[in-house]
Amino acid sequence: MAAKSVVCAGCRSEITSRRYLGCNICALPYDIECANVSEKLFLLMTKEHKDVWKCPQCVCKIPKIGNVNTPLSSAHCSKTITYAEELNETFPASGDVITSIDSPSGSSEYVNTKRGSRINVLDQSLLEDTYCLDNIRLVMREELQRALDERLPSLISKTVRELTAPMAQEISVLTQNIASLESRLRTVETKLAGSMNKTLPVRHKPIDPPLSAAQQSQEVSVSTRTPAKTDSHGPLLSQTDGGWTEVTKKPARASRVTRGTASPGSTQLEPSERRRYVHLFYVKVGTTEAQVREHLTSVCGADVCTVEVLRPRGNYASFKLSVPSKLADTVMSPSNWAEDICVKPWRQNFRPKPKEN
Description:
By secondary structure, the protein is α+β, with helices and mostly antiparallel strands. It contains 8 helices and 12 strands.
């Protein structure tokens, strides 16, 4: 059997939730919107409050003021005032205005200036209910935190395992491939070592015994034959009787330059300044000797260089520079010359002299 639907007496709509109130006088149901009760106030109401609730229609039927001149009105008004006080203390609401009127007989009558409104005062029971709700929230928060502490680590670890499972599988495959390659490499090394061991041993040429003094004199006499004249830079050649050509290596000439070792000032002679010569070329046509010397002065910081104009082989200017040895690296630095200008050490015989007729 289907449950009987509940219809709101105010808006005549079906009530689908459990948040509604029943009037204590007419027993008609009202949803919280038509009952003019907020959701927060409905949650704070206890069962006793809901049992004594009156709908706005029944509240409007209560007389708002009595006639003290009739004998029956006093008793009726006293009952009405008692009921109104109980109602207002039970369901106070914001926006209610209560006025107290003193009658000539000395009794006080409470008049509500807004129909269906309630006084905005919460009694002690509502405060106790609020405290109870706070305790319930605290307990729920603690239980939720405990559940998270118990379930969250396992949930995180499970998620991490699911995400890292493909990576772990790929790493395992790579490890197997590396192990296979290492095994193949060891096999190749073993085969290579075996093939090297199978090669024939190297036969060394026997060393001749040392020559005697007579043999050495004969060798000297043979090698001291007058060779034929050849190029000064090539080997010495001589023809023997048997048709063989004897080749004798030209001995290196020992340097016959003698350098002084006396300390400076011990003799009356002083050494000259060592200088290096530099070839400057690929300079713009029309550049003068004075311009080159001025540039060298700015580079070296003093006028210590000499410049000699050369006859170029192409469409450019060429110069021979004489600079102190200690400033040679500075002069030949690429940063001191414009782009495409060339500088190189001077060679004494780099250019043959013209033949004289």
